[in-house]
């Protein structure tokens, strides 16, 4: 097998060379947002220097170049998640917008009093709160499937909760707090049997594993660009064409219409019906370059390296006295939530930062999950393929040092 040349890869990420508080940076907050390769930064720079114009409006050369670049991002994203058609990809500002689009345009018009939406205890607030908002407007309720102590979804319970009142089922592909990989295929199969559409929050899956929405068999798949090497303010919603055709537009404005009359406006075909106004064109140029970067490495190599790092980091972390790790699912992406006995998560994160180590502390936008574990917050070390074993060592050394300061 070929060696994963992580040092060569790191050279592609300008930010990784910097220091923080006089220490070499150890960036372990990748689940929050990833760093960007130079190719992404340069693609956006080149767009503004050479090609910038608005999309879908001008017949001049720059307008055509910008439109081709923006629509090219749609093609790349469609291929990246194996969507059956590029027209089924709505470009959004991120997962939050993607899920809200489904909430207001798909769910709300269908929901009535007594209906339910099924989600899980381990979701990010972006896969809970939009459902609560539309449930409140329609008299529906939001139900949450339980998890076990290992941080795995209770699949039997999830399936048992797919009762006739459930009009939409939701689940994260990968948990942002625990790294747990959920059995989306099995869930989708059960949903199909009952005619319940399934929405999958893919935010934390796409940076780590190849995603095939057709093989998964779900109805909606939401992703965010900034966690997968792309710029902030980019993302997408994939949905089956039958759903998109039936959904009324959520945002109205320019570029989403066929004909505007005060007697009645007709809308553009999907996907443009859902893309009112000027989009984040340069952002999608950057996201295209991010997908090219993933393609150049390949997920086989990425996955193998990340799983090695995860195993090593977990093993090293267990050596630290008083460590409690949250989430020990059989199948995980490289995310480790933990606490040190007798120390506050925020104090630890602050002291780790002084050692150059960037981890996140807090509830990670997952209050119900924190409640399940009975803690207000955790520390989260989330790794990417450009991280190294030496960084894991530096992280553990910093943690041992910080522990001495606090104990
Ligand atoms: N879902 C999950 C699982 C996430 O990790 C995040 C980002 N932390 C989101 C949704 C929201 O993504 P964004 O803020 O980019 O819209």
Automatic annotation (TrEMBL):
Listed EC numbers: 2.8.1.7
Cofactor: pyridoxal 5'-phosphate
Coiled-coil annotated residue ranges, if any: none
Occurrences of domain Aminotransferase class V (ranges): 26-395
Reaction(s) this enzyme catalyzes, per UniProt: (sulfur carrier)-H + L-cysteine = (sulfur carrier)-SH + L-alanine
Keyword field: Pyridoxal phosphate, Transferase
Enzyme class, first EC level, given as a word: transferase
Functional description taken from the UniProt entry: Catalyzes the removal of elemental sulfur and selenium atoms from L-cysteine, L-cystine, L-selenocysteine, and L-selenocystine to produce L-alanine.
Family: Belongs to the class-V pyridoxal-phosphate-dependent aminotransferase family. Csd subfamily.
Name of the protein this chain belongs to: Cysteine desulfurase
Lineage: Bacteria, Pseudomonadati, Pseudomonadota, Gammaproteobacteria, Lysobacterales
